[in-house]
Amino acid sequence: MGQLLILPMQLLIWFVLIIPMLIVIYLSLVSWQPIMGVDWWQAPFAGLRNYAQALQDQRFLSALGRTVGLVLAAVGLEFLLGLALALFFHYQEFPAKRIFSSIILYPMMLPWVVVGLCFYLLFLDKGPVNYLLIQLFGPLASVQWYQNPFLALMTIALADIWQWTPFMFLVIYSGLGALPPEPVEAAMTLGASRWQIFRYIVLPMLKPVILIALIIRSLEAFKIFDLVYIMTGGGPGTSTESLSLYLYRTGFVYGQLSYAAAMALLVLILVALVARLMVRPLEMELESR
Known about the structure:
The protein has helices at residues 2-28, 49-55, 58-91, 97-103, 112-122, 128-137, 149-178, 182-189, 194-221, 226-231, 243-253, 257-288. It is mostly helical and 289 residues long. Helix 9 (194-221) packs antiparallel against helix 12. The two termini are 37 Å apart.
């Protein structure tokens, strides 16, 4: 009877997850393009050739390294800003505190396309940012943000940081509110400074929450597509092309679906290994308790 109760969910999982995954694995092992005029199940077998090609594809490797760097920079700053805001709102009392804490959350509720378009307009050559720089420092202060690969990546990172710092703030602020007050009160009674309380009491108790926030946000940021597509289109050239954007172009613009499937599986394996390494400290922390 118990098996019958879970059968619908098992069938749903098979249909939504396992069957498409098997199709992707199959596609990665054949050589199929829609323009060939051959059905995908009749495509010639290619073995591991697509995987070998991906590991030698400089554009794929560059997109991978660029995406990793963007994730490290954006998520790192989001964490620091979110932690600072959470500590401020948790320990400070001021008028309209609840209102401001709600306003902070608004950016992450906006669609990515709205955020991307707004930041794209902000950093145009004749946009508000350059106008402000010219007013403050003169005509020579104008910057061509989208012509320089580093500056173009920086604008994408700024958009991501603005949108997702509220997520870090929300998770850490909630974690701070759930901490037991007794250890902090005891440390204050013994004369510990605020830094000592934070460093040796609050931060260790907050570690599982921080790890969860970093894992979730890192995995989500690794899939970045919308902001890059809207703000720079991967340009100038391919200097800001993210991994998701390159996979999209390979599969749906260039029509190389088998090659895109192989690259996607390589990325899946890499992300699974990294996620496992990130989850391990959390498991060790929970086991120690």
